Amino acid sequence: MKIVAIIPARYSSTRLPGKPLKDICGKPMLWWVYYQVIQLKVFDDIICAIDDKRIQKVCQEFGINYIMTKDDHPNHISRIHEVSTKIKADYYICINGDEPLITKECILPILPSRIQNEPFFGGAMRVLTDPAETMDSSKIKLVVSDMTGRCLYMSRTPVPYPKGSLYFDYKKYIGVECFNKKALDFFVNMPMNDLERVEDIDHLRFLANGVDLHFNYVKSESISVDTLKDLEKVRNIISEKIKNGEIDIGNDK
């Protein structure tokens, strides 16, 4: 079974332009994600899916494997699909290029154990512990129907509504995903639906068309960097980890 890791890195982020190249303790954000992924030693290949020569230059400088993709993809899943047309694999593991705190504990639980014949998506989620983060519309929350991790719905607002009880653990989507080729083909060949359009959540295209999404719980402090505030928070966390000896990057590029 061939499993390829793909790190999509788009330059023209609406809220934080040039996001993959933002400095974090002397290294670009993209490097931190790549650094975490290469520690696993479980992938047949690790590729950054980029769209800009400025990112290409940094990849070359730090010895990061990359593929230049089109710069007009409407979402990251479409970008991963382009890579899947160039590199054949049984599964494509997407690790978002804006989660520099991602760890193996977030990635390993979603690795598939067998080949699926139908469109397959697997992801990771964690319990939200910060009330402010729960109310942040830039973060995607999700609802799970049962103990198997089958997703009923994904939203940017806290659902379900706490009318009957306040005692409920809201869950946050983490930027680690597993697709087979059939799922990627299915996604790019289906039109956007109303749920996806209103929530601005790509994954709702699968749910609206009857494709299950499967999520695993992980313990994580991963933060998706969408704003300067997020970036500053991540810088402080990584700086503290380096100071405490929890991260040793040595002289690695």
TrEMBL record:
It comes from the Bacteria. It holds the Pfam family CTP_transf_3. InterPro entries: Cytidylyl_trans (IPR003329), KdsB (IPR004528), Nucleotide-diphossugar_trans (IPR029044). Keywords: Lipopolysaccharide biosynthesis, Nucleotidyltransferase, Transferase. Coiled coil: none annotated. GO terms for molecular function: nucleotidyltransferase activity. This is 3-deoxy-manno-octulosonate cytidylyltransferase. It comes from Suilimivivens aceti.
